Amino acid sequence: MDVSRPGKGRLRVAVTGASGDYGKLLMHRLERDPEVESILVLDVARPEGAKVEFHRVDLTRHDAEGELTDALTERPVDALYHLAFLLGPIRDGSLAHELEVIGTMNVLTAAGRARLPRLVVPSMTAVYGARGNNPALLREESPMQGCPHSRFVTDKVEVEGQVRAFRERHPDLRVLVLRFAPVLGPSVDNPATRFLKRGVVPTLLGFDPLWQALHEEDAARALHLALRADASGEFNIVGRGVLPLSGIIQQAGARPLPLPGPLFRAALHTLDMVGTGTLPVALLDYIHYSWVADGERAESALGFIPYHHVRDAAAALRRS
Known about the structure:
Blueprint: E1 11-16, H1 21-32, E2 36-43, E3 52-56, H2 64-74, E4 79-82, H3 93-114, E5 118-124, H4 151-169, E6 174-180, E7 183-184, H5 191-196, E8 200-204, E9 210-211, E10 214-215, H6 216-225, E11 233-237, E12 243-244, H7 245-251, E13 255-259, H8 261-273, H9 285-288, H10 296-302, H11 310-319
Parallel strand pairs: 1-2, 1-4, 2-3, 4-5, 5-6, 6-11, 7-10, 8-13
Antiparallel strand pairs: 9-12
C-alpha cells in the first residue's frame, strides 16, 4: 500500500517506545488522525489510546527479534516508528546501549523480514559533533563526528550507521531518519531541558556558541509528516533561527554563570554526583562550540516548516 496517498481510515501504524518523549508526542497526533485506523504498540507498557493495539515486547531480550517479526507479519502495518531511545537521566549506560543499539538491530531485522513499506527513526543534530572547524551550516551529508566521551551520543551515531546499512540493503523501502535539534517544551525531558531548567546555568567562560532548538509541537509535527512523506534518507529537523547559548538560557528564565574551564567541569561533575540531572560533563563540547544544522532538505522533501522560533522553544520551559 502506498502510504503517501492513503485512503481514509486505512492506515495501520506500529510504534516502539510509545511511552517515551517522542512516542507521547506522536501518539497524540496519530490518535487524532482520521486516516489512522489502528496503532500497534510494541513496548513493555501499554499507553492509553482508543486506537491502541498492544503487544508486549522488551527490545533488550534475546527473543525480541522473533516477537517483533511475529507481531509485524500477523497483521501487516503501513509504517513503523522506532522511537525506543532513552533521553532521560541514564544511570546504567550498559542498559541504554542494549536498548538502543541491540534493540535497533532487532527492530531492523524484523522490519526487513516483514517487508515494511516505511520505517521512521529519530536521531539528533548532536551526531554531527560540536567542533571549532564546523561549517556555518551542517547538512545531512556532513560527517557524524559525534562526541567520543559520551555514550549518549555515540549510541545514536551507531544506530544511524545501522539504519543507513539497512536502507542500502532495502532500497525499495522508505527509511526516514529525523535528526532533531534539542527539543524543548513542558512535556519533554532530555539533557537540554534539564540543563536549561536550572535557575543558574553554568557556562564556559569566553565561549557562547550558537544553539538551535525545536519546540516540542514542531517535533510532533515532523514525526507526523514522516508518515506520508514521499521521501527517504536523513533530515535535519530544526526550529526557526538561532541564538547564542546565553540567550537561550535567558529565554528559559535562567541566568548564565560563566566559569573558567576547570571550575566549569567541577561544577557539572558536582551537580551530576548529587543527582540534579544537569548536562553531563561528557557533553561539554556542545557548550564550547557551535553546531548549526541546515533544515532546507526537511522543508523541501517533508514539507516541514517550523512554526516556532528558537526563543519560543526556550520560553516554553519558563512557562512549564
